[in-house]
Design goal:
This protein is α+β, with helices and mostly antiparallel strands. 23% of the residues lie in helices and 47% in strands. This is SRPBCC family protein.
Length: 139
């Protein structure tokens, strides 16, 4: 099983960051790669569309409001992987109330691609996503 993780310090308190990204259906609020999200099954499943119109369906598998993290599994996507599970976490930065560290990590099995290719793919998605989050919070 392959994995990757990207962290980024963002210019907002952990509570403010979590209020933006903590909703499972909130990706369009901060992630340009996902302009559309539809909540299904009472909010436990999200049906996403990317700018090319490709559909990604994900299921929430863990959610912790107090610790500010959630995990999800991909059920359907145009990515060359299976067994994908990802977690987004918001951490406090000791001694700094107005910044937070956001960590986005995932593990998955390559399918029809090399491990290096899928690690690079998701590292790029996570990095670009956290860069977009930083820009949103800095505006």
């Amino acid at each position: 099983m392959a994995s990757t993780s990207v962290s980024r310090i963002v210019p907002a308190s952990p509570d403010k960051v979590w209020s933006l990204i903590g909703g499972f259906d909130a990706l369009p609020d901060w992630l340009p790669y996902i302009p559309e999200s539809t909540a299904l099954e009472g909010g436990r499943v999200r049906r996403l569309k990317n700018p090319e119109g490709e559909v990604i369906i994900e299921r929430l598998v863990d959610f912790n409001e107090t610790e500010r993290h959630y995990s999800y599994a991909i059920l359907q996507a145009p990515f060359p992987v299976n067994g994908y599970v990802s977690t987004i976490r918001v951490h406090t930065v000791p001694g700094q109330e107005n910044v937070a560290e956001v960590q986005w990590s995932g593990r998955f099995n390559p399918e029809g691609a090399t491990e290096e290719e899928v690690v690079d793919l998701f590292t790029g998605i996570y990095r670009d996503g956290l860069d977009a989050l930083h820009e949103t919070l800095a505006a």
